[in-house]
Amino acid sequence: MGLSQSKPFNKNTRSLLKLTQERRTHYKLLGKSPISDDDLETLIRNATKHVPTAWNTQSSRVVLLLKDEHTKVWDIAISVIEGLVKAGAVPKEMFENYTKPKLEAFKAAYGTILLFVDYESLEATKEKFAIYADKVDTFALEANAMAEYLIWLSLQSEGLGASLQHYNPLIDDQVAKTWDIPSSWKLEGQMVFGTPGEKIEEKEFDPIEQRFKVYGK
Ligand SMILES: Cc1cc2nc3c(=O)[nH]c(=O)nc-3n(C[C@H](O)[C@H](O)[C@H](O)COP(=O)(O)O)c2cc1C
Fold it and tell me: Which has fewest Cβ within 10 Å: 30, 78, 210, 217?
């Protein structure tokens, strides 16, 4: 029996457990959404605002791209990698058979969320907490990951699927130019989302006993 059916938990916890268990990576995504763009904006805005950051630095920056703005990011990725093919840095066959179809599939989705860290916003914290200075960037990435996960679950909760991509730094310059991104924002992830277009295969798990322990129970 799955954890989500476990008796002791209240309704909210059961919903949360169910969402965490059902969230998966979806590559085939349709260009439609069961919820409005306003509601999407509310969900992403909520994650951006409420996810914790080390020392409350609020270092994550998030850009929601919909419709033509969403397709632009994947056209950028295609043209940048096409450039690499022409320069001989990426094999043509690999691009044509593998990379391009994958990027076209992202383009066919409903939207893309760009996640950045504003590294300039961390400078004062690095000075103030000098002994942790070398950890601050890592903490900022951890906070970004928390935002990504909350967004992923929020989308899942509303019937959307998503995948997390990393075409940075290849696309950074074009992205910055296209959406007027401040130079201190560094692109760290791209989440593509839309209505799931296919059933996802079961995932295999390592024995949880090797990964989780409890003492003192
Ligand atoms: C931090 C992180 C980075 C990831 N980066 C990528 C990526 O660049 N491209 C990709 O296709 N999937 C990426 N994934 C998705 C993982 O491959 C996927 O989550 C994992 O295989 C488990 O599958 P599931 O999401 O269906 O549970 C990433 C996931 C995480 C958590």
Answer: 217
